[in-house]
Amino acid sequence: MSDSAAIDQSKPSIARVYDYLLGGKDNYAVDRQVGDFFVKDLPGSVGIAYANRQALIRVVGNLARDGVRQFVDIGSGLPTADNVHQVAQRNSSDAHVVYVDNDPIVLAHGHALLATDDDTTVIQADLRRPQEIYDNPEVKRLIDFSQPVAVIFSAILHHLNDDEEPAALVRWWVDRIPSGSYVYISHFRSGHNEETAAAEEKLQASFGRGRWRTDDELTALFGDLEILEPGLTACSHWRPEPSPDGIDKIGPDDRDLTLWETLIACALARKP
After folding, report:
1. Dihedral sign of CA atoms 267, 46, 166, 129 in order
2. What are phi and psi of 2, to 5 degrees?
3. Which residues does 108 contact at the CB level (< 8 Å), separation at least 6?
4. Which tens digits make up the pLDDT trace of 24-74?
5. For the segment 67-120, what is each residue's pLDDT rounded down to a tens digit?
6. HEC secondary structure over the chain
7. Are strands 264-270 and 182-188 parallel, antiparallel or unpaired?
């Protein structure tokens, strides 16, 4: 069976909805229906997707410049402008990147995108079964878990409900990465307001998942890891200064944020 043959076009996909909100073309009518709720009924909410993506670009650029050469992007979603491997390899030509997603369309597009890149791969797997990811031959080929690695959970843990124990999942990976490794998490941040409630209700209705969490709950996801400066903060305020060479410049973002931009937060932590 080909990658495309496994794609179910009758149900919305989290990856494809994100693709639509970011201006991509790899989505179907059922995905656009969900996306249009955020675009039309919750105006400004698309800012969450953009703020999240820009923070990820800055995080990967920072890590690659600091010497990190291995990245595992769990729940990576569809390829978009400035993918993790592009940012990492722009700053470190020998960087190795593994993308992980459970959506077959991500696998199909990833294979096409990475056909000539031996240092990057994409695998289809469920983040709730981390051992299968860890043992995957492609992961073993590219990632040496005796050396520092960055594990990325960008806008994915909020798609796990509480009974799926996202903190335990993070801890599973922390227990298997060496000292000097990093964990990055971005996550919907509860605003205790009507907008948060409406967005959460839509995600639960569409996917049966989608959980906004408080700052205390988000910090707890990191367990005993050392959260680096500036701590847990709105994605738009995570190290907004441009890089020295300007390549990964997103632009300083010390302005007042929109309500929606405050509802996506992130932090980077290091394993001592």
Report:
1. negative
2. -75, 165
3. 2, 3, 4, 7
4. 888 889 999 988 988 888 888 888 889 999 999 999 999 999 999 999 999
5. 999 999 999 988 777 899 999 999 999 999 999 999 888 888 888 878 889 999
6. CCCHHHCCCCCCCHHHHHHHHCCCCCCCHHHHHHHHHHHHHCCCCCHHHHHHHHHHHHHHHHHHHCCCCEEEEECCCCCCCCCHHHHHHHHCCCCEEEEEECCHHHHHHHHHHCCCCCCEEEEECCCCCHHHHHHCHHHHHHCCCCCCCEEEEECCHHHCCHHHCHHHHHHHHHCCCCCCCEEEEEEEECCCCHHHHHHHHHHHHHHCCCCCECHHHHHHCCCCCEECCCCCEEHHHCCCCCCCCCCCCCCCCCCCCCCHHHHEEEEEEECC
7. antiparallel
pLDDT at 163: 94
Instruction: Calculate helix-pair angle for 47-65, 84-91, nearest 10 degrees.
Output: 30
Q: Which pTM value belongs to this model?
A: 0.86
Question: Is residue 228 scored above 90 in pLDDT?
Answer: yes
Q: Return the HEC string of 24-83.
A: CCCCCHHHHHHHHHHHHHCCCCCHHHHHHHHHHHHHHHHHHHCCCCEEEEECCCCCCCCC
Measured distance CA(53)–CA(39) in Å, rounded:
17
Kindly report the length of the chain. Answer: 272
Spatial contact of 171 and 223, defined as CB atoms under 8 Å apart: yes
Two tokens at 86? 């592009």
